[in-house]
Amino acid sequence: MQQVAPEARLWFIRPATRRDGGIRVSWRTLNGFQARWFDPQTGDSLRTRDTRGGDFFYRFHYALNLNDTTLRELGYWTVGLLAFGMLVLLITGVLIHRRILRDLFAFRLHHGRLRGWLDSHNLTAVMGLPFHLMITFSGLVLFMFTYMPAGLDLSQGIDDRELRTELRGFYSRPASNRAADMQPLSSFVTRAREHWNVDSIGLIRVANPGDAAAVVSVSRDGTERVSRNHPTVSFDAVNGEILHERQAGGPVRRVERFVSGLHLAHFGGAGIRWIYFLMGLTGCMMIASGLLVWTEKRCRKRPHAGFHLIQSLTVAGTMGLIIACMVYFWANRLLPETMPRRADAEIWMFFGAWLTTAVHALTGSTRGIAAAGLWYRQTATAAALAGLLPLANLLLAPEGHLPASLNRGDYTLASMDLVLLTTALILGLCARSLAFRATPMPSRVARQVEQEISP
Amino acid sequence: MKSRPQPARLTMAARLVVALAGGYILAYTVTAFLTLYLPMPQTEAVLLATLVGLLLYPAAICLAVGLSSLRRACLWVLVPAAILGLSTYIPLARTATCCW
Predict the structure, then answer these.
(1) Are the C-beta atoms of B34 and A151 separated by less than 8 Å?
(2) Nearest-CA distance A142 → chain B (Å)
(3) CB-neighbour burial class of residue B94 (10 A; exposed 0-12, middle 13-18, buried 19+)
(4) ipTM
(5) What gap in Å lies between CA A50 and CA A60, rounded to an integer?
(6) Are A360 and A386 in contact (CB under 8 A)?
(7) Does B25 touch chain A (CB under 8 A)?
(8) What tens digit of pLDDT does each residue of A208-248 get?
(9) Measuring CA to CA, how many Å separate A261 from each of A4, A58, A210, A221?
């Protein structure tokens, strides 16, 4: 650690898990978090490409990739306001669909195009409602003091240190700015294991390493329970004495830890992750289908100058986003490994691709069947990018491609390619039907429009 | 007395301000009030108050938009916020001045 990140004020070391098989070491500097992986057997640094990988999506989903300390708050607040908006929409959605049971069992796919979208909106919304409420609210709970600082502000100065330790969960104390030799970290791990009488531990945190006031905190394995209330013991890194041990806390504390644990889903392994993934997809489906019904209805009622903008952004916000993600994955495979600032380049490719889809949608026409043409072009692009990626892996990643990962039993990696292929298949089918709709056939279109307006 | 009909857009804009800003102020003052007066240990009170505040903000937005008139929306959102805010921060300001 001392060699990897001597200037860092905070280190995190997470032992290898079954899921990724490497020791993850991360540290905080003035420019945000950085991470590296190490081999658990040899202790060598694993040579990885310079990439942010999935971490980019993870950070984007709560801070919008604004890593700068001052801008980060802006990211939190933008995401937070959207989350409050989502909660409001979920409440109003429930209120507006009071006859939901009837709507739920009516799936009228062949009663015109909009009916089908409306019914799929209702179906996915009802199916996912408990999950959507849970994930939105628990996401807000994770950043509760950013969004609602009133209580914390009032409590400042009452019993500051105690409160912060209790709330943050890690014992902390200011650096002394005097250098000192720390005891080896392995000794703390051994003592923590003996303390709880367990084999595995979850996380080692070192605050102010190399300082006379350095603190080593060891937490228990977090995959055992839903709640984020992992028992944690903090040692003085220099003389080894126990400074603090995390208590389970009162009932409210335990509720809060449970709710935020539900969001993070460190429990339950791959099964839970798949359920969350599928539930998240119902959320995307709910939003996208609702958006489609809304824009189409608006268009029919009163064609409007802003309509082109809304419809273009709908295309760029749904298909364009998928294209941007695919471009990010392609950049991850294709950019040369020796490229300077490679990780940043990948992220620029993501935003560049997204912007391109928006410009493409905005400069095209969305009048009449031209809209279907626009949808078709972006859907087909997304399908091609997703479907060709596993094939590119065959050529570019001799150990990571689908046959290799299946052969090895590495289902985490294999499911990435399998999901990509499924995505490509679904998007391909959509593109085919869009292509049909985008071809000018006046009589057919007229008939269809008539059908849809009449009910 | 009958009030003059207001332009719909202006009422809607005012309602949104009451909902978004007023709703947040209500949630904020409720959080502060509960933090101060909840009969439980400090850390528990802070957490419970903040959780209530998080739930209250979206609820207050729905309330402000859903009430039948703008005046009612103001009444239900801003008046409780004012009462709670005053009853929280006035005692605090007093103790602060006495301690100096």
Answers:
(1) yes
(2) 11
(3) exposed
(4) 0.83
(5) 18
(6) no
(7) no
(8) 888 888 888 888 877 777 887 777 888 888 888 888 887 77
(9) 31, 16, 32, 13
